[in-house]
Design a protein that fits this description.
Blueprint: H1 2-21, E1 31-34, E2 39-42, E3 47-55, E4 58-66, E5 77-81, E6 87-94, E7 104-111, E8 114-122, E9 128-131, E10 135-139, E11 142-151, E12 157-165, E13 170-178, E14 183-190, E15 195-202, E16 208-217, E17 227-238, E18 242-251, E19 256-265, E20 271-278, E21 281-287, E22 291-299, E23 302-310, E24 314-323, E25 326-334, E26 339-347, E27 360-368, E28 373-384, E29 387-398, E30 404-411, E31 416-425, E32 428-439, E33 451-458, E34 461-470, E35 479-488, E36 491-504, E37 509-519, E38 525-532, E39 538-546, E40 551-562, E41 565-574, E42 579-593, H2 596-601, E43 608-617, E44 627-630, E45 633-636, E46 642-647, E47 650-656, E48 665-669, E49 671-676, E50 681-690, E51 692-700, E52 714-719, E53 724-728, E54 734-740, E55 743-749, E56 759-762, E57 764-769, E58 774-782, E59 789-791, E60 794-801, E61 805-806, E62 813-819, E63 824-829, E64 832-839, E65 846-850, E66 859-869, E67 871-881, E68 888-891, E69 901-912, E70 916-919, E71 922-925, E72 927-938, E73 946-949
Parallel strand pairs: 2-8, 10-16, 43-50, 51-58, 61-67
Antiparallel strand pairs: 1-3, 3-6, 4-5, 4-7, 7-8, 9-11, 10-11, 11-14, 12-13, 12-15, 15-16, 17-18, 17-42, 18-19, 19-20, 20-21, 21-22, 22-23, 23-24, 24-25, 25-26, 26-27, 27-28, 28-29, 29-30, 30-31, 31-32, 32-33, 33-34, 34-35, 35-36, 36-37, 37-38, 38-39, 39-40, 40-41, 41-42, 43-46, 44-45, 44-47, ...
């Protein structure tokens, strides 16, 4: 007892020395520091790498911890430190998707009591969604549509909405603050039908979506009355009078269009117009201070127009015949100076006859018997050395003056355009002129900006011009500028003019600036305009200043919708003339329904009827409410499955809408192609059925007692129409297809995808699926015969490399099935060990490992598996080595339809660091590590192939 007591102080002393000095192989005073910035920012989905430095000696365990549990891509491990030598340890983590901007995560690295922190902050990643209809129905007084905007980023932002005309005039604007993930709907109102430009932009993120909205008068429904759309307006002008106006237009039927307009001002006679047009002609009439009627008829290549007007009585008639390669016409005018004109166009080539087109001869003759006077002209266009040339000659003969002859020519070679004309009588040349034009692009001149220029000359006149367009810095647009000099009748003028537009107030206002400078000074003028607009009020201000005339004009106009009406006001002021004009107005929308009797009189609707039935093989209650679509129109079935559609003449696909089909139904004959003719009825029949289920199994036929690893098999399923799909079974050989249309199906094994040596016992079977029932099939395969090599107490039953053909330098896996308990299993090449195998925990009797193929190997490679336990059992096998062999294998369905999403697994014959798939030029990253990687691939719409790359 005393001896033990005397030993305790010595033992305590040794323990203290070990703690202070550190034992061999243990960390001794580890110091951890951060070698990268303290805070790093990254967008969601991105990776960040922080670098730490460790100083000390011995083996230490590195531990990592993320405050919010963000995924770490670096594993914890034990590292060996050397005294006086820093050890750099990089740590990579990924910022999860959907993390709000500004979220900060603390990453802590601990090693033997020492630690250091680094912070990762989620950066702002903008995201914007905007949806709006391409077309908006305008039903007076307004057109309305819904604009849906969503902030899909990870931080708060402000959405700016701007709606303008194609000329840039603001129509609507809004500013919406949105939190991350928030969605809003805007009801946008438009006061008149037109094409508008829509811009949605994030104020902070800068993302924008741009498009167009086509606001059109609402079309008449296929089962509703036609409508005439128009406006009624009242206007007052001071000083001036009060005026009223009315106008409407629209279809009376599918074959006739009608328009009406009328106006009245106090102190004057009312005036108006009527118009009716159809496919073969038109009829129009006007009344008031000026009146008249006009009729036009068209039939094939012949057209005729007759018109009469007053109060100065005048009548006219035109008769034209035109076709491919010719055109003839005659026109008579009856008034105080009657005339008769004959014309003709003839194509000397194969093209259609058009005036002054190369290869076209044109002639015209005019007779005025009251003077008397006769005139005519002849023109011909042709091509000379690829230069378009036009020659034209004419004459005018009058009893009182000598005959005048005219001649002109135009030549348009590639670098420039040149033209000239001359007119002469018996007394000499009466008039002449020449003109030329070109551009820097046509002359291939290297100028800072493109310039167009030209000149013209004639008796006592000379002129020249040059035009260019300059780019100005934002917010100004392009500047169109023109310089022109002209001398006429002894007077010379010179002007430089141009104009540009700029947006202001974040695009909600438009500023226009135009000006003209030159000599004489009274030509100098400056114009300034400002337009601002929105859904409630639109404003326009104008200013025109001519300092040397002198002249100064200003104008202010306002427009605002109120209660369905559009109110207008404008004030104009001439400051030097001391004159002010005030205009007030209001416009009310009109919607006039055409009576059915009028529609029937003018031909009714240009439609045919598609009547049909949807037959359901299953519960009868499912017949009602099915949606059938064709040509952009749809109808719902009644309790008996019947439907009716009215469609314009043409060819259509009548189909049940699959998006709104009940989940328990599948199409058997879900669509049909029909031809619709006017006023005729077409009957169709569509067939649906309750979903059927197909269950199957691929059975492996093996000798009793033989154990096989689970395998997947490829199976093809084909219907009676020859349509085919394929799938892989589960590891047990079973498969299920939960949604098939009833009918006869053929199920077969894809023998090309069976492992080498496997035999097919039952390759194909047929099954009849009934509505709502489950059909079952079974196929069978046989594995290759088992080979047994003996060697004492250990037997090698099977050697299975994962590939029979590999490239040099690969490291394929090898599975060896054994009977017994070997102490070592290796792969030998020419007496040299090239692979060491280890037992597989989840499979008894299976040893697995990689063998290293030499880099210089080529052709057949003779290998041998050796299993040792007192004695050695040997099993020879071969590998084919080729530089053209693949480095891995891709496992996916061999046949897939376009647009289908497939699960893809890639296995490499050696461990890799990254792996991806390339399909139609698009790279899709795969997830995994080592030799096994996986991901999902969407089959391209166009035929093609995909390949995996490491």
């Amino acid at each position: 007892m005393a001896s033990c007591t005397r030993q305790r102080p010595r033992l305590a002393l040794w323990i203290a020395l070990l703690i202070l000095l550190g034992g061999p192989g243990l960390g001794q005073g580890v110091q951890v520091e951060r070698a990268s910035p303290e805070v790093k920012k990254a967008a969601p989905g991105a990776t960040v790498t922080h670098v730490f430095v460790l100083r000390g000696s011995g083996r230490v365990q590195v531990r990592l911890a993320s405050q919010h549990g963000w995924p770490l891509l670096t594993r914890e491990r034990t590292v060996a430190l050397e005294a006086g030598r820093p050890y750099y340890f990089p740590v990579t983590l990924r910022v999860p998707e959907g993390v709000p901007a500004g979220t900060r995560d603390r990453l802590r690295l601990q090693a033997d009591g020492g630690f250091a922190d680094a912070f990762t902050e989620a950066a702002y990643a903008p995201g914007l969604e905007a949806r709006w209809p391409a077309e908006v129905a305008y039903l007076p007084p307004l057109g309305r549509f819904t604009l849906e905007v969503a902030n899909t980023g990870n931080g708060a932002d402000v959405v700016l909405v701007r709606l303008t005309t194609l000329e840039g005039v603001p129509v609507y604007q809004a500013r919406l603050p949105l939190e991350a993930g928030e969605r809003r709907e805007l009801r946008v109102t438009v006061a008149e039908p037109r094409v508008l430009r829509l811009l949605v932009r994030l104020e902070r993120g800068g993302l924008q979506r741009e498009g167009y909205v086509n606001v059109q008068p609402a079309r008449a429904k296929s089962d509703g009355a036609f409508r005439l759309l128009g406006r009624a307006g009242v206007a007052y002008r001071y000083p001036g009078d009060l005026s009223l106006a009315l106008g409407a237009a629209g279809p009376l039927s599918d074959f006739a269009q009608f328009s009406v307009g009328a106006g009245y001002a106090l102190g004057s006679r009312p005036a108006g117009s009527l118009g009716l047009s159809w496919q073969g002609g038109y009829l129009s009439a006007a009344f008031g201070p000026s009146y008249g009627v006009a009729l036009g008829l068209y039939e094939g290549a012949v057209s005729t127009q007759i018109a009469f007007s007053g109060p100065v009585r005048r009548g006219s008639m035109n008769f034209d015949v035109s076709g491919r390669g010719y055109g003839f016409g005659a026109a008579a005018l009856l008034d105080e100076d009657p005339s008769l004109r004959l014309s003709a166009d003839l194509a000397t080539g194969r093209d259609e006859a058009q005036p002054f087109r190369p290869g076209t001869l044109s002639a015209e003759l005019t007779l005025r018997p009251a003077r008397p006077e006769l005139s005519g002209q002849l023109a011909y266009g042709f091509s000379y050395r690829d230069w378009p040339v036009r020659l034209q000659g004419g004459f005018t003969g009058d009893a009182a003056v000598p005959v005048e002859f005219r001649f002109s020519a135009d030549v348009n070679p590639e670098p420039f355009s040149l033209g000239g004309r001359i007119a002469w009588t018996g007394l000499g040349v009466r008039d002449w002129g020449v003109a030329a034009a070109s551009s820097s692009e046509r002359l291939e001149l290297d100028l800072p900006l493109p310039v167009t220029f030209g000149a013209a000359a004639g008796p006592d006149r000379l002129s020249g011009f040059a035009r260019a367009r300059l780019d100005l810095p934002a917010p100004w647009g392009d500047l169109g500028a023109e310089a022109r000099v002209e001398r006429r009748a002894g007077r010379t003028t010179f002007t430089v003019s141009g104009g540009s537009e700029a947006s202001a107030a974040d695009g909600l206002a438009l500023i226009a600036l135009d000006g003209r400078l030159g000599w004489p000074l009274d030509l100098n003028e400056i114009k300034l305009g400002l337009r601002m607009g929105g859904s409630e009020l639109r404003t326009r201000a104008d200013l025109t200043w001519a300092p040397w005339k002198p002249g100064l004009k200003t104008g202010l106009a306002l427009e605002a919708p109120a209660g369905g009406a559009l109110l207008q006001a404008r004030v104009d002021r001439e400051w030097y003339g001391d004159r002010t004009t005030l205009s007030l107005g209001a416009q009310l929308p009109l919607v006039l329904e055409v009576p059915p009797a009028v529609t029937r009189f003018f031909g009714g609707r240009n439609v045919g009827v598609v009547a049909g039935e949807v037959r359901v093989e299953g519960p009868e209650r499912l017949r009602e409410g099915l949606v059938v679509r064709a040509g952009g129109r749809e109808a719902r079935t009644d309790a008996q499955g019947r439907f009716r559609l009215e469609l314009p003449p043409g060819t259509y696909t009548v189909a049940v809408d699959p998006a709104r089909l009940p989940a328990v139904l599948v199409p058997v004959r879900g669509q049909v192609r029909v031809e619709v003719r006017r006023k005729q009825r077409v009957s169709v029949r569509l067939v649906l059925a309750a979903r059927s289920v197909l269950e199957g199994r691929v059975r492996v036929v093996a000798e009793p007692g033989r154990e096989l690893s689970p395998r997947r098999f490829a199976v093809a399923i084909e219907d009676a129409q020859g349509r085919q799909t394929s799938l892989f079974t589960d590891p047990g050989g079973a498969f299920t297809v939960p949604a098939l249309a009833p009918g006869r199906y053929t199920v077969r094994l894809l023998e090309d995808l069976l492992p080498p040596g496997w035999e097919v016992v039952v390759a194909e079977t047929a099954v009849e699926l009934r509505p709502g029932e489950t059909g079952r099939v079974e196929l069978a395969v046989r594995p290759p015969p088992r080979k047994v090599y003996g060697g004492g107490r250990v037997q090698i039953l099977e050697v299975r490399p994962e590939a029979d053909r590999v490239p040099p330098g690969a490291a394929p896996l090898v599975d060896v099935r054994l009977q017994g308990a070997p102490g070592r299993v290796v792969v030998v090449l020419q007496g040299r060990i090239v692979g060491i195998l280890l037992p597989v925990a989840e499979e008894e009797g299976v040893w697995r490992g990689r063998l290293r193929v030499p880099d210089d190997a080529e052709g057949p490679l003779a290998l041998q598996v050796e299993a040792t336990n007192g004695t050695t059992a040997r099993f020879p096998f071969f590998l084919s080595v080729s530089r053209d062999a693949p480095w891995g294998v891709v496992r996916a369905l061999p046949v897939a339809r376009p647009g289908q999403t497939l699960a893809v697994a890639v296995h490499w014959y050696a461990p890799v660091e990254t792996s991806w798939i390339e399909a139609d030029g698009e790279r899709i990253a795969l997830a995994g590590e080592g030799a096994d990687w996986s991901g999902r691939l969407t089959v391209p719409r166009t035929p093609g192939s995909a390949g995996a790359t490491r």
